[in-house]
Amino acid sequence: MTHVFGRHFLQIPGPSPVPDRVLRAISQQVIDHRGPEFGELGLKALAGMKTIFKTQQDVIIYPSSGTGAWEAALANVLKEGDRVLMYETGHFATLWKKMAEKLGVRAEFIGGDWRSGADPDQIEQHLRADSAHEIKAVCVVHNETSTGSVSPVADVRRAMDAAGHPALLMVDTISGLASIDFRFDEWGVDVAVSGSQKGLMLPPGISFNAVSGKALEAARNNGMRRSYWDWQEMVEINGKGYFPYTPATNMLYGLVEAIDMLHEEGLDTVFARHQRLAAATRAAVRAWGLEVLCNRQGHESGVLTTVMMPEGHSADAFRAQALRHYNISLGSGLSKVADKVFRIGHLGDINDLTLVGALSGVEMALSKAGVPHEKGGVAAAMAHLESTPAPGIDA
Amino acid sequence: MTHVFGRHFLQIPGPSPVPDRVLRAISQQVIDHRGPEFGELGLKALAGMKTIFKTQQDVIIYPSSGTGAWEAALANVLKEGDRVLMYETGHFATLWKKMAEKLGVRAEFIGGDWRSGADPDQIEQHLRADSAHEIKAVCVVHNETSTGSVSPVADVRRAMDAAGHPALLMVDTISGLASIDFRFDEWGVDVAVSGSQKGLMLPPGISFNAVSGKALEAARNNGMRRSYWDWQEMVEINGKGYFPYTPATNMLYGLVEAIDMLHEEGLDTVFARHQRLAAATRAAVRAWGLEVLCNRQGHESGVLTTVMMPEGHSADAFRAQALRHYNISLGSGLSKVADKVFRIGHLGDINDLTLVGALSGVEMALSKAGVPHEKGGVAAAMAHLESTPAPGIDA
Amino acid sequence: MTHVFGRHFLQIPGPSPVPDRVLRAISQQVIDHRGPEFGELGLKALAGMKTIFKTQQDVIIYPSSGTGAWEAALANVLKEGDRVLMYETGHFATLWKKMAEKLGVRAEFIGGDWRSGADPDQIEQHLRADSAHEIKAVCVVHNETSTGSVSPVADVRRAMDAAGHPALLMVDTISGLASIDFRFDEWGVDVAVSGSQKGLMLPPGISFNAVSGKALEAARNNGMRRSYWDWQEMVEINGKGYFPYTPATNMLYGLVEAIDMLHEEGLDTVFARHQRLAAATRAAVRAWGLEVLCNRQGHESGVLTTVMMPEGHSADAFRAQALRHYNISLGSGLSKVADKVFRIGHLGDINDLTLVGALSGVEMALSKAGVPHEKGGVAAAMAHLESTPAPGIDA
Amino acid sequence: MTHVFGRHFLQIPGPSPVPDRVLRAISQQVIDHRGPEFGELGLKALAGMKTIFKTQQDVIIYPSSGTGAWEAALANVLKEGDRVLMYETGHFATLWKKMAEKLGVRAEFIGGDWRSGADPDQIEQHLRADSAHEIKAVCVVHNETSTGSVSPVADVRRAMDAAGHPALLMVDTISGLASIDFRFDEWGVDVAVSGSQKGLMLPPGISFNAVSGKALEAARNNGMRRSYWDWQEMVEINGKGYFPYTPATNMLYGLVEAIDMLHEEGLDTVFARHQRLAAATRAAVRAWGLEVLCNRQGHESGVLTTVMMPEGHSADAFRAQALRHYNISLGSGLSKVADKVFRIGHLGDINDLTLVGALSGVEMALSKAGVPHEKGGVAAAMAHLESTPAPGIDA
């Protein structure tokens, strides 16, 4: 490590920095996962997650990465040969599609340019064309972590209803949940997929499915051969706070603490805080004379901002300079935008001064790396922060 | 919680108590899983696990419970309709078989009375009978956590070779690894399955496969449709210390620390320590006039000891008393021995005085619960400890 | 370190093992000691300590060891040439006397044989003899940590009153507070001295004075030249939760947590727990055929038990064996009983099974060290524990 | 707490933020302070502190705040009626003088305007006037924490030598040590006073004296009646790594870790890092159109920068806004500059981005509080950081 002193600025779009309270919670001694104390912990974690997903239906907690929860979503309701409709919002939507294909599902992919969220109109068109209702599920990424674009999930549901199509709505909100607004029940989502290391501010290691009654019913009658990811056994045993196999106890300690923190601030305040920091970040990018990858107004992410490098300049070389000189980690461009963009995470346990510090790291590293830009990004971000009330603090 | 003060005695056969060093390691701030610092961490963890499995072949680390690693073992080398030979050593062997069946594998189950490990002779017989070599794998549980019996894995390999059968040897050493001797390469194991929360002294949350070249080759040509559990992509990306999806970073911090601790003491010393404590525990059980479930000499586990309750007495009522009065968690009997046995874990971060304290909790709780027994178990255990040299301490 | 694995048994009479909850509290980030958050912390710590001392008068918290709080007690109310009456209960009473002399105070020392607490009758006699009321203070050690004898503080107050003597009553309850009963106001104590690393279960580093109005008044008119230890400035600034110089913030985090724990269990339950474990320990000593140093019935300590070695055997050699073989730290004999006794601490964060584990370490180490003894100490302790209800759990 | 999320910016001039590594070290379980493991810890801590003070003479570690180490310095070498020469660099120099007077020492105070460090010429003059050599010690504050001015300690020694005066040189480097250059032996200091919560990055709770042979000799023949602060007994017992009374074990864990960190970076790099950040801070202050309190070139502190408020504006009201809106703690003005200045700490575990974040908090809070200023302070600081090589990172 070059940097012995001073806090590392972990500004990737997840894992996000884990608050000290959560780290301390995680460092508690493990307990008997079949004893009475565990039952209380399990019930608390499961009930808490329902408040975060805003659902009164079921939530499943897996010891796995978010990728596992993707697979769980697919495996429980789809079987080999089933058709699904997916939307190419970026790298992660593409990975989910590839996973579906590996599992034998026929995925139709509505192409996208990676600069916006999903388009409900196109989804509606596709569904209308499927008059036989062969499409079993529509899969959308809520917050596309590779691009910083947000899909209008509620509008997707409206489009599905408008088309009168019975497909399930499956949403990847791995990086959206607990950072930007998500409403499982109100929006009519059937399966949501999430992970611990983003808005929930935990280390990576546990993941989630929220499951509607309709999806649970579908799982009973369909789905692939499955064991680890099977919802049914989970839901039954979860009723008393236990799990069918050994749960990641210490992560659950942290989860309960993180949920407490989110409610201490209030979810709406959390969401507003993210939006304000995101707007300040975009102000900085504009002031630098650079371009934000997401070019669809209203789709810009509150979680991260992806910045396009000027032609001929390597984003990865720039990021390496930022890390070396300023002890800040920025997100890399993935697959087709590799080395062409970098990503600034502004999610989770973050506040005004941390954001400004991070943006100053970007601004100074642009100079170090010889990337053409205007000065003044930090000043623009500060101007935005000063001129807008901080949620939960200012009136 | 009834007990505010005093250390809880977590004497279940896993999760085992996590050493403070490991808890502190886990509480380190998360880092960028794609940055240079992570690469070093990943390489260290992977190389370290090879020394624990005693293999120069591949080790896979999953963010999942051990149950996930079971599924990974099956999914990579077997496909629907494949035949496997399994051995009923107890509850966990049975669960593994059920999982295989859920996944469409045809499992032949050599019946057992749950009082010993697998019998290599019976395995040899079965394999000889399969002259068409249809059986794709032999699956054995190394240390059966539900009973406290150990299967002679090296002998199973010898039996397979004697039968001239090409099946893969797959071993569940979830609770055996790092507590009792296990030698992946030397014993000719093809796939080993393990977890973090036993001899490795971590919280639950990551799991392992060790994979032979032969198994990896089999996986290339066979196996189920799979994504999360797929070895191939893992092995490729692991080469530089990275993972195809977000790894459980904080657990890896702990893993590296735990492996350091195991080598500080020396694996042979670790194994000898476990055997000595196990023998002391059995001496206590005999002195109480109770019976150890494992009745096959040489198969008794160094990890846990399962004790049979006198007829007409509830093991669970006894365990509840032990927890309430003496702040000790004992393992329950599972499925067909439910309420008929209790299990004493003596694995991981444990020493002489902790064992005696634990055994005194058992002895006093037997009284509290009105279970007929002789006094003197603790004294017998102490006599054993005094009369046998402590590995690594006494000469 | 010889011992890589297994919990160390820290059975010295302080520092006592720090509960994980307290260690985590201490590991919180430091805050501005002049900011509003600190004020709340300070008020909580000060108010909490009053409940522990059972006083409505003032409590002072020093960043210092208990030795510093001894000096503070002397420096605030005595000046050079003043006479005090002290009682030789053991090593620590002797050290306090030496300190008084170093500071120029003329200490009269009622001799003792180190096998009991202070004798109120002798104190009364001495005070009656001082008809001129020249003696400014009577200094008594509540729980003598070097011997395991307890002085009857309430009786000392009664003796002073019977003698009609106006001296202040100053009590060292460094190792008594929060383990055995202590009642500052009810017992008419004027100055009490305590420390963090005993019944309060913190690491060493902060210490306490409880101060009566009478003592505070005396301090205004008397006392040595002093600055760091001065009560007056402390008391004034403490009113708002702040301190005249930088306080040991992280220790205060731990203090607040420890006080919460003590009240969760209830002070009376805490005291009863200590007495029961002490009685079990003495039962073990008797069964070994060894002698408890304290030979005055009713004076035996609930905090520690001092055991006399058989003639011709080295206590320190024995303790070294215990540490080496069984990973247990026992207290050494101090000054005139050096190498002749060892001390078993049974205070703070301790429960039945930890005590039995510790006693088994003593019993086995007696063998290792070739110390003549009977077996059966552990059995005797267990018999005591079984036959007496555990406070707060049984009944 | 208003702020649930995001890291608090603790930018007071001590306590400085404690690195996670140090917090984890402090959270280790306490050990027997008389056992062999402790001896090693004690030796390591004492030897380590010699490398920090740059001395081969003695270092004393007290469980106390820095104020205690002040008292220790005075009490060991001075007695009632002794004369000392002190220099009014600011609030803390004044407090030290008041303490000396409380202890009966006659302190002569060379007046200062709180805007620079000590003036060696004036000291030389005073000493020359003391032809009878009655002055026993010259007391100087190295880094005056209340003002941000540094005294040229080496020049003070030269002045004393030029005057041919035998007084001891006593230096308070509580906030200087381990942040800015200090050389005990080379500079001919006789007694240095320091604390844990500044450049050493520990929580408050332990303090230090470095002691020359000459001072130790003086202590043998002079000094006040003393016990807790007495050097002699300390030095003797420290030889084997132990302490005459219970040491603050957990703070020593942290100390050893912090010293390791300082040497990992290298002391010269640490000092250069502080100077660069201080210069950036002053650049910000100038750009705001505000004035730095220290107006003597070459005396500006690398540890903190004190900023004068424009006439008619309350520094404390401003600081309250900064805390409320931006979650940053700034230092208050003390005694005669109360409410007229605020202090920005930039010491210890700090890097470029944290500084910029902190300065942005100041800049935005100046607006919130309606304090007249120019924008551009943050930009000026960034310009400085970009234009100067980062020590240890850039070439």
Folded structure, characterized:
Chains A, B, C, D: This is Pyridoxal-phosphate-dependent aminotransferase family protein. Chains A, B, C, D: Belongs to the class-V pyridoxal-phosphate-dependent aminotransferase family. The structure is a homotetramer. Chain A is α/β, with parallel strands linked by helices and about 400 residues long. Chain A has two domains: about 10-15 and about 265-385, Aspartate Aminotransferase, domain 1, CATH 3.90.1150; about 20-265, Type I PLP-dependent aspartate aminotransferase-like (Major domain) (Aspartate Aminotransferase, domain 2). Helices cover about 40% and strands about 15% of the residues of chain A. The first copy, chain A, contains 13 helices and 14 strands. In chain A, the strands form three sheets. Chain A has a seven-stranded mixed sheet with strand order 2-10-9-8-5-3-4, sandwiched between helices. Chain A has a five-stranded mixed sheet with strand order 1-13-14-12-11, sandwiched between helices. In chain A, helix 1 runs antiparallel to helix 9 (about 250-265) and helix 10 (about 265-285) runs antiparallel to helix 13. The radius of gyration of chain A is 21 Å and the shape is globular. The termini of chain A are far apart. Chains in contact: A-B, A-C, A-D, B-C, B-D, C-D. At the A-B interface, helix 1, helix 3 and helix 9 of A face helix 1, helix 3 and helix 9 of B.
